[in-house]
Amino acid sequence: MSNLAIIKSTYEGKTSEENGKNLERYLATDASWTEAKGFPYAGTYIGLADIQKNVFYRLATEWEGYKFTVEDYVASGDKVMAYGTYSGKHKASQKSFTARVAHLWQLKEGKIIRFEQFVDSIPVVAATN
Fold first, then answer.
1. Residue 55's CB: how many other CB atoms inside 10 A?
2. Element (H, E) at 122
3. Are the CB atoms for 53 and 38 separated by under 8 Å?
C-alpha cells in the first residue's frame, strides 16, 4: 500500500470508527503527534494511548460535529500532506467555527511515525470562549 493510500484510509473510511481503526493499524507504537502551538490541544504526544487521551477523547467530548474536510493531498517520498478545513461547534460555548488546516504525515516502512498539524488556531480558540 502506498503512503498516500495509507493516509487516505485514515480520512476516507465509511465511518469515523473505520478511520480510527485504520489510524491505529498504521500508527507506529512510538509515533510522534504534534498539535500546533496556540491550538487548544497544543503539544507533542507519543504513541496511540497518549494521542487518544490528549487529542481524540477531547475532540469527541468537547465538540459537536468536529470534522476535518480534506480538500486534497500532496505526497512526496515518505511524507504526505492533507489539507482542508476544520469545522465544529464547541459544546460549552455553543459557538461554531471553521479554520484552514494542513496535516503533515511522515511514514517509514508502511507505518506512520510522525504527524504535525498546521492550523489557523484563532477561530478554534474563539469558539471555546
1. 19
2. helix 121-128
3. no
Residue pair 22/14 in contact by the 8 Å Cβ criterion: no
Per-domain residue ranges of the chain: 3-128
CA–CA gap between residue 46 and residue 33 (Å, rounded)? 6
Which residue, chain included where needed, has cell 504527524? Answer: 115
Please list the residues that pair with 102 across neighbouring strands: 83, 118
d(CA 34, CA 38): 12
User: What is the rounded CA–CA span in Å between residue 70 and residue 67?
Assistant: 9
Architecture of domain 3-128: Roll (3.10)
Q: What are the residues facing 117 on neighbouring strands?
A: 103
Low-confidence ranges of the chain (pLDDT < 50): none
Q: What angle do CA 59, 104, 68 make, to 5 degrees?
A: 35
CA pair distance 46, 35, nearest whole angstrom: 12
Distance between CA atoms of residues 23 and 17, nearest Å: 10
pLDDT digits (tens, 9 = 90+) for 2-29: 999 999 999 998 888 899 999 999 999 9
